[in-house]
Amino acid sequence: MPSDTPSRVTRLEVISVGPRQRWTPERKRELVLETFAPGAKVNAVARRNGVATSLLFAWRKKMREELGLGGPPAPPDPPRFLPLAITAAASASTLELELAGGARLRVTGAIDADLVAGIIKALARR
Length: 126
Prior knowledge:
Blueprint: H1 25-35, H2 42-49, H3 53-66, E1 92-98, E2 104-110, H4 113-125
Antiparallel strand pairs: 1-2
């Protein structure tokens, strides 16, 4: 509801951001390299050093272009299953498969072709 009496400001705070920050090329490079460290997060590096996150991302992009790297690094190719044929007449032996993530499947002895094929199909659906 409107009031007949004008409102009064009881507290007024003026915040000054100060002069514009200037970053040397060496300091920009240090900060960008810090963002490429394993586990580093760009926003954490920016906050810790008083840099706008968007500015730090712009510096990263410029450095990649200068180094001829273009965009961000491409993700690794996804793992693929190779065709595998097991004959029913397989003799006693060892079959070892290394799966994505470092897991291994080892079958030793008389290999049942249907069992191994079923395991491989089940793993392919994961």
